[in-house]
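TA notes, week 10

Several of you asked for a full example with nothing omitted. So below is the full record: structure tokens for the whole chain, then the designed sequence directly under it. When grading your own attempts, check the secondary structure regions first.
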């Protein structure tokens, strides 16, 4: 080691952090440090620098040590895989000795500890468990040497699990590596958990001891928090029965800590993570036990008072609220599975009462977070069957929500949703008179606003409304009144919609004198009878209908599509084009329906190309004639309102397409098992559009391609399902191969890979998009059909289709993605041919796409001249980074008995005195 270089490194680190150094000196020091990191022997100097950081005050020493750890981490990230196995092991042993076994400074700052953890976790991610099977025994040995080492071990284990599980980190590790690491950790749990449990008990006893010094309390706090943070990451994936094991019941630990101010938020976070797990029928008892213990503890806590420590109490109340809402969202169906008994319904009632307490919380953040859950609860047939006695006190508490409206403490949207929820509450009342009085009470406030003198004057004439709209830009009073019109009408509509009012038919007076006039309105006195019309040729039978409707649509609607705003086009879809689609005679499909829909779909595809484009950073959104000024909305919220209009129009179009090619009629809606069926008329319409029309499949496909790549989850999900239907019906026709195999397949991949630029989609939707890509590849590229369609055919020996009937575009697109090799694609082909489980096939596709996702997240996607159709959006930089983690060639072998033994001489029968 060169002493001169060593001193230069010390000086460069000092200058780069010195506030007294000149900018040029600091820049030179930065450049030297970066150049030093690229040396092949930098790790040797870094280890020496960590051991002997030189003179100076404590902060200077820690800063040099941090730089040394940073260099070592960079060395592991960039050079680890090129080191021989012997050097890897030697370096690992030395670093464990240096960072964990040697005496630790009592005043070591957080940034040094975190860098130690990051460095050792990076090595573990590359070696555990195949090449570092003794990781846990080594960590447990270090555990015995002191409290500083205990904290480091907990942080290392948390970091290792977090990097494998958390969606924010797990894309840095290939799926096979993640699986190996989690399996290795799972095998270690019988050894690890008793030790962690015992440490929690010991540290909590120190924390609560009256004789403990402030320094001791602070250490205990840090260790307990570190243990809970580690537990939270493990609760996401470990077997469901492990955290409720009687000897190490960590769920009970989290429940008991809910009453401890210092640890209650961490305890609630652990419980929330556990409540998101899929318990299912087989683990229902575990879920019931866990939520029973939790709700029993919450019942004793004050969840409404914010003073004296407002910030801390509000945070805890929010966490408890989120935990209960998460339970209701994820576990309500499990609780009500197979006809719940009296005990389960009593438990549910207590949970709902606690939710009611939080619903009336001073912070409306908690109230708003519950609304969707309550809408679900109050529509659940099993709950409503319990009768008014079950919900009486709950309804009374929810009824108090009306007090929120009078104080203007909720937004317009929240107010409407709360009104609708109250109406759902009234629907559960068995007594008709009481239900009527409840709704009357709800409606009173919006009706009072509607009939107020100011509102009456404003709506008394169209001219008054126009005047108010013109004045709204400068007159706050006019703007508020216009907003109240929209809010009041929306509220009354929501109440009427949820109330489900039925009107009794009235006996009409004898109006026979007007029959002739009515007949003239319906077609004239001398119109032909239906029986005679039916005998006419098709051309004569529908000629008048065809002429009038075609003229109306062409001259009044289709000719003005370019000038229609988004909201007007949305209304036209609902009130003109959808009734036309439903009522158009099948004889007029080729001559009337086809050209109308082709024009309509073509226009929206063109409009979507413009409105879905994301402006570059710093550029303002492009305003077109389709989205004009929204009256009654502040200038700062205009773009949000326009974006909402685009989203609503897109959803309306997707619903329209769904009705055209995938219509469903609900049968048995009043029973416990409603079914969706397709009527013969709807089936005929679907078959015409998809198999007989020469242009409509292409027009529909163009829209679906755009929507799948857009950010709205609801529209995207429906577009994916409709795209899957197109593939199932059209895959054998080669004229659609470009649409399905290139455009739709590219859109599906973009929908997955574009997450890194802001298009975050939930995991369920990601799987649906992956399934669409799999289906395209399976049918078009491999020429195979799913098992359920193989009637009379062996799925493993399907007849080969001619090469001319296959589509090679999906394979070419996969090969054009960064870090995807021909061998990986061939392996995918083999798996898809041999494994017919849809789940297995989707997992294989997901694992293949993990590598492009990693590459895209490593390198900023830039447009280039790549031949890939994805290049324009995703970029084509396929340079592999030296920092990536590679799969290990060694097969993971898990001993069945080696780790099953529990650590002896630990008393883990109780914690904090709880049985």
């Amino acid at each position: 080691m060169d002493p001169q270089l060593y001193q230069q490194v010390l000086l460069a680190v000092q200058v780069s952090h010195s506030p007294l150094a000149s900018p040029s000196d600091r820049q030179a020091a930065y450049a030297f440090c970066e150049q030093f990191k690229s040396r092949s022997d930098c790790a040797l100097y870094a280890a020496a620098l960590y051991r002997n950081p030189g003179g100076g005050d404590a902060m200077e020493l820690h800063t040099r040590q941090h730089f040394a750890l940073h260099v070592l981490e960079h060395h592991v990230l960039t050079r680890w895989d090129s080191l021989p196995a012997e050097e890897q092991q030697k370096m690992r042993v030395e670093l464990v000795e240096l960072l964990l076994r040697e005496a630790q400074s009592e005043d070591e700052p957080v940034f040094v500890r975190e860098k130690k953890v990051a460095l050792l976790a990076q090595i573990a991610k590359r070696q555990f468990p195949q090449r570092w099977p003794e990781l846990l025994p080594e960590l447990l040995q270090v555990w015995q040497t002191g409290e500083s080492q205990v904290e480091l071990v907990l942080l290392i284990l948390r970091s290792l699990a977090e990097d494998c599980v958390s969606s924010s980190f797990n894309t840095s590790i290939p799926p096979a590596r993640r699986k190996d690491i989690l399996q290795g950790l799972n095998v270690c749990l019988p050894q690890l958990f008793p030790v962690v449990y015992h440490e929690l008990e010991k540290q909590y006893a120190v924390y609560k001891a009256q004789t403990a010094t402030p320094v001791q309390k602070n250490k205990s706090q840090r260790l307990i928090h570190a243990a809970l943070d580690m537990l939270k990451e493990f609760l996401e994936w470990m077997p469901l029965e492990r955290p409720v094991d009687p000897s190490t019941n960590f769920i009970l630990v989290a429940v008991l800590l809910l009453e401890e101010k210092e640890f209650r938020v961490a305890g609630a976070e652990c419980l929330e993570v556990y409540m998101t797990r899929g318990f299912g029928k087989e683990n229902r008892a575990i879920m019931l036990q866990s939520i029973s213990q939790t709700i029993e503890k919450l019942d004793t806590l004050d969840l409404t008072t914010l003073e004296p420590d407002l910030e801390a109490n509000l945070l805890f109340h929010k966490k408890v609220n989120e935990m209960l809402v998460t339970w209701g969202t994820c576990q309500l169906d499990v609780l009500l599975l197979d006809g719940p008994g009296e005990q389960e319904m009593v438990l549910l009632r207590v949970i709902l009462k606690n939710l009611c307490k939080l619903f009336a919380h001073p912070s409306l953040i908690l109230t708003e977070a519950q609304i969707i859950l309550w809408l679900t609860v109050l529509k659940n047939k099993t709950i409503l069957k319990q009768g008014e006695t079950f919900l009486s006190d709950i309804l009374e508490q929810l009824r108090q929500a009306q007090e929120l409206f009078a104080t203007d403490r909720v937004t317009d949207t929240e107010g409407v949703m709360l009104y609708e929820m109250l109406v759902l509450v009234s629907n559960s009342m068995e007594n008709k008179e009481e239900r009527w009085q409840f709704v009357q009470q709800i409606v009173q406030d919006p009706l009072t606003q509607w009939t107020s003198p100011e509102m009456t004057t404003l709506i008394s004439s169209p001219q008054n409304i126009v005047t108010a709209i013109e004045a709204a830009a400068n007159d706050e009073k006019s703007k508020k009144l216009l907003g109240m019109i929209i809010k009041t009408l929306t509220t009354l509509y929501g109440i009427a919609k949820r109330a489900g009012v039925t009107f009794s038919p009235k006996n009409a007076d004898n109006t026979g004198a007007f029959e002739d006039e009515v007949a003239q309105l319906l077609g004239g006195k001398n119109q032909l009878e239906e029986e005679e019309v039916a005998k006419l040729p098709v051309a004569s039978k529908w000629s008048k209908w065809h002429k009038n409707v075609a003229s109306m649509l062409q001259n009044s609607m289709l000719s003005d599509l370019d000038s229609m705003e988004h909201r007007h086009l949305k209304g036209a879809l609902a009130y003109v084009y959808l009734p036309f689609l439903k009522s158009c005679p099948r004889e007029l499909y080729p001559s009337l329906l086809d050209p109308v829909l082709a024009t309509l779909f073509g226009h929206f595809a063109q409009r979507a190309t413009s409105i879905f484009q994301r402006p570059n950073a710093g550029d303002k959104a492009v305003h077109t004639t389709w989205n004009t000024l929204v009256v009654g909305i502040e200038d700062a919220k205009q773009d949000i309102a326009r974006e909402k209009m685009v989203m609503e129009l897109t959803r309306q179009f997707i619903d329209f397409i769904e009705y055209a090619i995938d219509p469903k009629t609900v049968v048995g809606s009043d029973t416990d098992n409603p079914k969706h069926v397709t009527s013969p008329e709807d089936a005929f319409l679907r078959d015409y559009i998809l198999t007989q029309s020469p242009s409509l499949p292409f027009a529909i496909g163009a829209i679906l391609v755009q929507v799948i790549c857009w950010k709205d989850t609801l529209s995207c999900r429906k577009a994916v399902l409709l795209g899957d239907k197109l593939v199932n019906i059209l895959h054998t026709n080669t004229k659609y191969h470009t649409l399905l195999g290139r455009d739709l397949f590219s859109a599906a991949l973009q929908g997955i890979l574009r997450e890194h630029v802001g298009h975050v989609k939930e995991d369920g939707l990601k799987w649906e998009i992956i399934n669409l890509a799999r289906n395209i590849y399976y049918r078009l590229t491999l020429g195979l059909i799913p098992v359920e369609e193989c009637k009379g055919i062996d799925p493993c020996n399907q007849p080969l289709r001619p090469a001319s009937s296959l589509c090679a575009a999906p394979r070419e697109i996969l090969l054009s993605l960064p870090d995807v090799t021909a061998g990986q694609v061939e392996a995918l082909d083999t798996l898809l041919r041999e494994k017919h489980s849809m789940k297995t096939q989707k997992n294989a596709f997901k694992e293949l796409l993990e590598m492009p996702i990693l590459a895209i997240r490593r390198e900023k996607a830039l447009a280039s001249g790549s031949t890939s159709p994805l290049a324009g959006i995703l970029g084509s930089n396929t340079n592999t980074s030296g920092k990536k983690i590679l799969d290990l060639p060694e097969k993971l072998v898990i001993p069945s008995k080696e780790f099953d033994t529990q650590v002896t001489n630990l008393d883990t029968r109780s914690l904090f005195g709880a049985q």
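Residues 731-879 form one domain. Use that as a sanity check on your answer.
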